[in-house]
Design a protein that fits this description.
The protein is mainly α. It contains 12 helices and no strands. The radius of gyration is 21 Å and the shape is elongated. The N and C termini lie far apart (46 Å).
Length: 251
């Protein structure tokens, strides 16, 4: 653990300090090896349990920000922070691709803003295993529609359960209520394959919902409740990955 901590501190301090000074990682025009520094930090965080025996899914974004706070006179905000954090996220994706994972799986596993390299690795491995499961792939196809519809929700509020009376929407709500605790429990153990298995179990209810329910109803209360149901489903899945990324382009 001590050498890992010192190595991380050195690499991230170098990256944050030089980024604050205006240096950028630009391939062959990277005299301070910023790309290598971040890549090394990513690999340490991605393999932390094997390297140190510590099983923690640490946020790379948060570590970079903490490193920047220690740079005298640094103003880590706006375009500077966005550019540096986007570069760090790109290094996580590169590391996963180097381990032989398909690009679509990598994109799905790194869709969130706050990348944790170890979590991204585990989620990507789980996705690669689950993508051949019929229910999971079918749900991934439906998920793009879920995301598009959920965008129509103008303001977030508690789900109005009493407004949902159609059998198909009640069935989906019941499935979400039943499976969400199991998904959360699996996530707490970093068992993302189990979490995705539970999520895949929603496929039939989601399919039925889209077959029998018209989301954009004229009644504002009913429309908002249905949109909120879609948003809750979207958020349950997006906390792990954007599974629509693994759908073949022909679907």
């Amino acid at each position: 653990m001590p050498w890992a901590a010192v190595s991380l501190a050195d690499k991230l301090d170098t990256f944050a300090g030089l980024s604050s000074a205006g240096e950028k990682a630009t391939g062959s025009r990277d005299p301070f090896a910023l790309r290598r520094q971040v890549q090394g930090a990513v690999r340490i965080l991605m393999d932390l349990p094997e390297l140190t025996g510590i099983d923690r899914e640490i946020s790379l974004r948060e570590l970079v920000r903490q490193a920047a706070e220690g740079v005298p006179g640094s103003s880590w905000s706006g375009e500077l922070a966005q550019t540096a954090e986007a570069f760090a996220a790109e290094r996580v994706r590169y590391a996963l691709e180097q381990r032989g994972l398909p690009i679509e799986v990598v994109r799905a596993a790194t869709a969130g803003a706050d990348l944790r390299p170890l979590r991204a690795r585990r989620v990507a491995d789980a996705l690669q295993t689950m993508r051949s499961a019929e229910d999971f792939l079918a749900l991934a196809v439906l998920f793009k529609r879920v995301k598009n519809i959920a965008r129509e929700l103008k303001e977030d509020s508690a789900l109005d359960r009493d407004a949902l009376t159609e059998p198909a929407e009640r069935a989906l709500l019941e499935q979400l209520d039943a499976r969400s605790p199991a998904v959360a429990q699996a996530a707490s153990r970093a068992d993302y394959r189990k979490a995705f298995s539970e999520i895949a179990g929603l496929r039939a209810a989601v399919d039925r919902f889209f077959t029998e329910v018209f989301v954009m109803a004229d009644d504002p209360r009913l429309r908002t409740a249905r949109l909120k149901l879609m948003a809750d489903l979207r958020d349950l899945i997006l906390q792990f990955a954007d599974i629509s990324e693994i759908v073949p382009k022909t679907e």
